[in-house]
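It is worth pausing here to work through a concrete case rather than discussing structure prediction in the abstract. The textbook approach is simple: state the sequence, then state the predicted structure, then interpret. We follow exactly that order.
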Amino acid sequence: MATAFRPDADNTRILRNAFGRFATGITVVTTNSNDGPVGITANSFSSLSLDPALVLWSPDKGSRRFPYFEKADHFAIHVLGADQGEICEAFAKSAYAYQDHYGHLNKYNVPLIENCLARFECARVAAYPGGDHMIMVGQVIEAEMRDGDALAFYAGKYGKLVAPQ
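Step two, the predicted structure:
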């Protein structure tokens, strides 16, 4: 049975549940800050353009981590594999989880996580208000990928999307 509703400030939970019906991959976005390397788990990622190579993601303005990303000139988006659930959970709990999942810093001092399904090292080119989120657009400077199953998010739960054979 379908549930019909008109979104408003009193039913944001049901709207969030409806948005959750769109299965997504999971990313961790990292940047450097005055407090050291920081990261945030995000599923609001999308490719935007091939030429130039652009991606976007949308951090919540209400997040304690938002100030780190609001003005970051460079950031990296890491698409997590099914075997990287602990990395997802670590960054969901702490902005400073990078210390436990160390890779290396790129030439812009952006912390990089190793062995992701894909990684996009970006320079910020634009930011637009998007309601309670900010739409961040980055130009991909470097990219990396590997084969594997994807860590997925659907209806508020984590899962695995098996790679086609």
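Step three, interpretation. The two ends are 34 Å apart (CA to CA). Helices lie at 12-19, 66-70, 85-93.
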